[in-house]
UniProtKB/TrEMBL annotation:
One of its GO terms (biological process) is tyrosyl-tRNA aminoacylation. One of its GO terms (cellular component) is mitochondrion. It comes from the Eukaryota. It comes from Lachancea fermentati. This is Tyrosine--tRNA ligase.
Length: 455
């Protein structure tokens, strides 16, 4: 296995002092466990040796979600420091189902659904790394980013050729049942009433063999995953130790802490609380809203995990945020940065603009075209005929009767235009409130705001 030295120029501002990506990741709260011999990995990195890392996700949903971003952020930090990365979509493992962290067996997916999920997830992997690197470059224009290579693989590509008899004969004896039985994902399910199917029991063998395959064929030496993946990752390390032809470069596993909800549940698909990164499922604005609602206590932690904001700037941002927490400056910075990173430079700023308009911040100066673009992307642009009267528009928006609409206007709870002009009567023309002849901002009291494109 060839070890290549990292080009000096790839050492970025954040890592300049130590060549210590692992140290930075630890400080950012992105490391739960590193397998032994850890010091060997640390020394390699300190010497500037280039390594290759992989992380996998099963195609059990249409999209990756914010929980999946934690291991991907680890890959990303290594990537912008010049290391090579591989993402894996589990075309094979997705047919079997990972029991890790689950109390019950997964429902099998239809082939067509799984295949569709695979192509979507591969696209999300490549978009994520492209957007994140672009947003990194935009954020730190003076840093030279010599990112490593980024490859995307599907484990079905090698599993489809593996024959069961050959596998059992060649690898079976190297896989020890005792160590399989004691892994948390297995032992916890053996005690449960419904037990565990043979498919799920063998899952760790599949993931172990993936690591072995990538180690032998692609020079991958590190696997990253959530902490629930520790058992599967160490199964791979065991297998490599037993059968690899060249063990001069020992394999390693690095896990990230599991992002949990306030009730301690893993944030993800199974728990049904995921925020997805596919903009067709959750728009950048949805993601912005999720982060803007972060509690004060989590703002700094999430900035460390989900953004590239340097640690000293995070400290500064959090302490000035805590002086006036009601302004939610910390949450706004966090939300803007994450969305820029995941969806590409500028998308966080666009989402912030939508949020500012909807939640009543000063929005004068935004052009009609810009409003149409950002509200359309956020999926919250409404349309109405430019010949409609105010009463007709209200009937549509509030799904109310004509008399109810008129009553609302009389009550003085309707505000129009960027200047939020209160109206108390049907207006003869909406034109004075319309921005650039095409967009009307209409508010119901303080709570609701609508942006309408006039057609
Ligand atoms: N909440 C989370 N925090 C940290 N890592 C996570 C989280 N959710 C998933 N991951 C990690 O993302 C990687 C891919 O996960 P994958 O998509 O296969 O399953 P999942 O999202 O955990 O799905 P499920 O909820 O159905 O178990 C794994 O390494 C997993 O540990
Ligand atoms: N088991 C991982 C996904 C995965 C699949 C195959 C691998 O080789 C690696 C990771 C999970 O469910 O989160």
């Amino acid at each position: 296995m060839l070890l290549r030295a990292l080009p000096n120029k790839s050492i970025l501002r954040h890592y300049a002092t130590k060549l210590d990506v692992l140290g930075v990741l630890r400080e950012r709260g992105l490391i739960a466990q590193v397998s032994e011999p850890r010091s060997l990995l640390e020394r390699k990195l300190e010497r500037g040796e280039k390594i290759k890392l992989y992380c996998g996700a099963d195609p059990t949903a249409k999209s990756l979600h914010l929980g999946n971003l934690l291991p991907l952020m680890v890959l990303l930090h290594f990537y912008v420091c010049g290391h090579d990365i591989v993402t894996l979509v589990g075309g094979a493992t997705g047919m079997v189902g990972d029991p890790s962290g689950r109390k019950t067996e997964r429902d099998a997916l239809l082939d067509a659904t799984r295949l569709d999920n695979i192509s979507r997830i591969n696209k999300q992997f490549s978009n994520f790394f492209r957007n994140a690197v672009n947003s990194y470059k935009q954020k730190f224009p003076d840093s030279e980013v010599n990112n490593g290579s980024c490859a995307h693989v599907n484990n079905y590509d090698w599993w489809q050729n593996v024959k069961m008899l050959d596998f059992l004969a060649n690898y079976g004896k190297h896989i020890r049942i005792q160590s399989m039985l004691v892994r948390d994902s297995i032992s916890s399910r053996l005690e449960a009433r419904d037990g565990l199917g043979f498919n799920e029991f063998t899952y760790q063998i599949l993931q172990a063999y993936d690591f072995y395959h990538l180690y032998e064929n692609e020079d991958v030496t590190v696997q990253i995953g959530g902490n629930d993946q520790w058992g599967n990752i160490t199964a791979g390390i065991d297998l490599i130790g037993r059968i690899a032809t060249n063990t001069k470069n020992p394999p390693f596993g690095i896990t990230v802490p599991l992002l949990t909800t306030s009730t301690g549940e893993k944030f993800g698909k199974s728990a049904g609380n995921a925020v997805f990164i596919d903009p067709e499922i959750n728009t950048p604005y949805d993601m912005y809203q999720f982060f803007v609602n972060t509690t004060d206590a989590d703002v700094g932690r999430f900035m460390k995990i989900f953004t590239f904001i340097p640690l000293d700037e995070i400290e500064h941002a959090v302490s000035s945020h805590l002086q006036c927490p009601h302004l939610r400056q910390g949450q706004r910075l966090l939300a803007r940065e994450v969305v820029n990173l995941v969806h590409g430079p500028g998308k966080g700023d666009d989402a912030e603009m939508v949020s500012d308009v909807l939640f009543g911040r000063n929005c004068s100066g935004i052009t009609g075209d810009e409003l149409v673009r950002v509200f359309r992307e956020a999926g919250v642009l409404l349309e109405c005929s430019r010949h409609s009267t105010l009463t007709e528009i209200l009937i549509e928006l509030a799904q109310c009767s004509k008399s109810e609409a008129k009553r609302r206007i009389k009550q003085g709870s309707i505000y129009l235009g960027p200047e939020r002009t209160k109206v108390v009567d049907e207006v003869s023309s909406l034109d004075p409130y319309v921005i650039d002849g095409k967009v009307l901002i209409l508010r119901f009291g303080k709570q609701k705001c609508f942006v309408l494109k006039l057609c």
